[in-house]
From TrEMBL:
Record InterPro entries: SusD-like_2, TPR-like_helical_dom_sf
Protein name per the record: SusD-like starch-binding protein associating with outer membrane
Keyword annotations of the record: Signal
Listed Gene3D superfamilies: 1.25.40.390
Pfam families (alphabetical): SusD-like_2
Transmembrane feature ranges: none
Signal peptide extent: 1-25
Length: 533
């Protein structure tokens, strides 16, 4: 079982980042090639091991985009257009296994960090509390994504092989329900938010935390913002689930009503990201190109739904996000109609008529950051909260702010790219932004119904997430049932339309006897606990 195995290379990699971002590639390569130089791990190094273990499923990477997303989440949200083919709504086993294995690599690193931390004396634990708190927040980010895919999975007793002194028979974990895991994470994040507000770092710990933290560079306030923003995301995810509804509403109100105590990600400068400083280093987006633009595989073709929304609203993000097909007459933008026959769709692609993701912004951008949480997402969450609580004016303000922040994010990633191909977009004028938010497909007014407001928010969130935050995108499309997307019906398959969840991968079924307890629930058509119609 992959999730029971601790991958030592990730555990040791934290030591490499202790030399700070100023290390040269040779410094990193030399140290990485000789792990025997490092006799044992520490809380500080293990913290980085946790972050690095999950890095490739955050920073654009070939395996994530080509193996996992190209045939699953991206076409199921119509963030990309694909040519219809049999069984396209059944998740490929290699992609599911890849995500599952990576999640349990991260969890194993985290359990090892917990073990090391718990073995410290009380004074040392207090001194290094920031590592425990930040690692827990990050682990909840990872676990939330996994729960939103599978619905249930081994969690509370998983990743304990090292803790159990290598005893495999004691380390096969039972499956835990998504609602139980969410309850635990929400409780813990609330406690973390309170503890982070008063945590103090000694000079030595502050220096170590800065060098080991590849996400926020040791900025405690950014970790506070990430923690509370993650709470908002998860609380809104469960706001309509009966067992969470009252709690979610109350805690959202508390967070939103007390920004000093519960700061969130509010500006683009506060976006929670893994930045790429040097594409030749181990943190890079070089795999983005082959991940979505491998010759003949078309993982970057535009969907008709996305192109139509951008065109109908004259959205200035059109050129930031897409290029017209190479043979498209007059530079027209055309997306793949999901209801066409697969051969017709493929012919349009082969003829060079289909738009594709802007290479400068995306596939050729070796500096594309790994985005965990953006200010735009916070604003859209605020807009939904205000829409649900009847504050129309505040909903409009937050919604329009989110659109501006989305534009600014894509301007930023386009600007940091060194790609020689694709389209450069230097600015979006205030006039173009104003025209966008006043356009018929986009405009929100205070007097609109709650449902109409939520539909508008959902469409903009979907557009903002696109292929950059695919896991959040699929979760929100399922939760909100917006935007309304049409899909070809695959009558040749037992799964004729996109599924509601992923099923447990085959190796886990084979090796974990506890699977028998949940096998009856393991169906593609079973909805998650928060997916309430």
């Amino acid at each position: 079982m992959k999730y029971l195995i601790m991958d030592l290379r990730y555990m040791l990699f934290g030591a490499l980042l202790a030399c700070s971002f100023s290390c040269t590639e040779d410094d990193l390569a030399d140290a990485y090639a000789e792990p025997s130089r490092i006799a044992e791990t520490t809380v500080d190094k293990q913290f980085t091991g946790v972050l690095v273990a999950g890095q490739d499923y955050i920073v654009p990477n070939y395996t994530n985009y080509f193996v996992v997303l190209r045939g699953t989440l991206n076409p199921w949200t119509q963030s990309i257009g694909v040519s219809n083919s049999p069984n396209q709504y059944v998740p490929g086993s290699s992609g599911v296994e890849s995500f599952w294995n990576n999640y349990y690599e991260v969890l194993a690193q985290y359990r090892e960090m917990q073990r090391i931390y718990n073995n410290l004396d009380p004074a040392a634990q207090e001194d290094r509390a920031i590592f425990r708190l930040a690692a827990a927040t990050y682990m909840h980010y990872e676990t939330q994504r996994a729960v939103d895919l599978f619905g249930f999975l081994p969690y509370f007793d998983a990743g304990m092989l090292s803790t159990n002194a290598g005893n495999y028979s004691e380390s096969y974990a039972s499956f835990d329900s998504g609602s139980d895991i969410y309850t635990f994470m929400l409780d813990d994040l609330q406690a973390i938010a309170d503890e982070l507000a008063s945590v103090e770092l000694s000079p030595g710990v502050a220096a170590s935390f800065t060098s080991q933290d590849i996400i926020n560079g040791g900025d405690v306030m950014l970790w506070r913002r990430f923690t509370n923003s993650l709470r908002m995301r998860m609380l809104m995810r469960v706001v309509e689930a009966p067992e969470f509804s009252s709690r979610a509403t109350a805690e959202l109100s508390e967070i939103i009503g007390n920004s000093e105590r519960f700061p969130t990600v509010e500006t683009g400068e506060q976006n929670i990201m893994i930045d790429v400083f040097d594409p030749t280093s181990t943190i890079n987006s070089r795999g983005f190109r082959d991940g979505i633009n491998s010759a003949g595989w078309d993982g970057d073709d535009a969907s008709q739904a996305l192109i139509d929304l951008l065109l109908e609203s004259n959205d200035p993000r059109l050129e930031l996000l897409f290029e017209p097909g190479t043979e498209s007459p007059d530079g027209a933008y055309l997306g793949i109609d999901p209801l066409l026959d697969g051969s017709e769709q493929q012919q349009l692609v082969n003829d060079g008529l289909i738009a594709f993701y802007n290479r400068r912004t995306f596939s050729e951008n070796e500096y594309f950051p790994g985005l965990l949480f953006s200010a735009a997402e916070t604003s859209f969450l605020l807009a939904e909260y205000y829409a649900r609580t009847g504050d129309g004016e505040a909903a409009v303000t937050a919604y329009e702010t989110g659109i501006r922040q989305s534009i600014d994010f894509y301007l930023y990633v386009n600007s940091v790219s060194s790609a020689s191909t694709g389209v450069v977009v230097e600015e979006v004028s205030d006039a173009d932004y104003q025209a966008l938010i006043e356009s018929e497909p986009v405009q929100m007014t205070p007097g609109q119904s709650t449902e109409d407001k939520i539909q508008l928010i959902a469409r903009q969130k979907w557009l903002h997430f696109n292929i950059v935050q695919p896991y959040e995108n699929w979760a929100e499309v399922r939760r909100l049932d917006y935007p309304t997307l049409g899909f070809w019906t695959d009558n040749s398959s037992t799964q004729p339309l996109p599924p509601s969840r992923w099923t447990i991968p085959g190796r886990e079924i084979t090796y974990n006897a506890n699977y028998s307890e949940v096998s009856g629930e393991d169906k593609l058509t079973n909805t998650l606990f928060w997916d309430v119609d």
